[in-house]
Amino acid sequence: MTCPGATVFIIDDDPAVRDSLTLMIEQDGYTVKAFDSGEAFFSEYLPAFHGCAIVDIRMPGMDGMQFQEELCRRAILLPIIFLTAHGDIPKSVKTIKAGAMDFLTKPVTRSNLLSAVQAALQESERIRIQAARHLHAKSLLATLTERELQVTALAIAGHTNKEIARKLGISHRTIEIHKSKIMQKTGAVNLLELARIASDAGLLPNS
Fold first, then answer.
1. Which member of 21, 72, 87, 204 has the lowest number of beta carbons within 10 Å of its beta carbon?
2. Residue 85: inside a domain, yes or no?
3. pLDDT digits (tens, 9 = 90+) for 149-205
4. Among candidate residues 108, 132, 156, the one where a domain is terminated
5. What's the CA gap between 91 and 119, in Å, rounded?
């Protein structure tokens, strides 16, 4: 089982489909929560929700693509599997490009459904780990002073202490003191680890 505590959210206006999908997924040991519309999902949404969503692309009111757009607007990182009886290649390509994990057509086989769910939950766990690392790294860098952040940026860009001192107009010895405090506050044991923290915080492109 991947992604402990995760839930598979089913959003489909057809009660027979919701019941069928719920049965197949629960039989494989996953927790399921079903909704008859996108509006119903968002009315009950909590920040603690995590897992993946199986979404009917054609529904009255908010359709599947509008649901996907609303997730993006709210910055809810929930991998989506689209399920529809009206699949077509252009629409599936559009949804995948917009971030959907998969696009399955009804009737879907149990093996295809569970394979898609497993992949989506693995992606959900990757997102959760990445988000946790981002928050932790940001909290570490938040302990640094503005000057220490300047020194950090120049150090991980490859500048020597002398170059940093010249750029900032302070002494070489002061740079050494700043670096010592930076390492102490962030817990980094070397410059490579400091660069990783900065990358996790979004200050550098991921290497």
1. 72
2. yes
3. 999 999 999 999 999 999 999 999 999 999 999 999 999 999 999 999 999 998 765
4. 132
5. 21
Tell me if 104 is assigned to some domain: yes
Whether the ω angle into residue 79 lies within 30 degrees of 0, i.e. cis, is no
**Residue 99 identity (one-letter amino acid):** G
Which one, of 119, 73, 61, 66, lies nearest residue 94 by Cα? 66
Q: What is the pTM of this model?
A: 0.73
Please check the confidence at residue 207 and state whether its pLDDT lies above 60. no
Contact call for residues 87 and 126 (beta carbons, < 8 A): no
- Which of 159, 163, 152, 147 shows the shortest CA–CA distance to 186? 152
Residue 27 lies in a domain: yes
Please provide the size of the chain in residues.
207
Q: Provide the domain count of the chain.
A: 2
Of 132, 160, 179, the position where a domain reaches its end is 132
Shared domain for 45 and 91, answered yes or no, is yes
Co-location of 28 and 97 in the same domain: yes
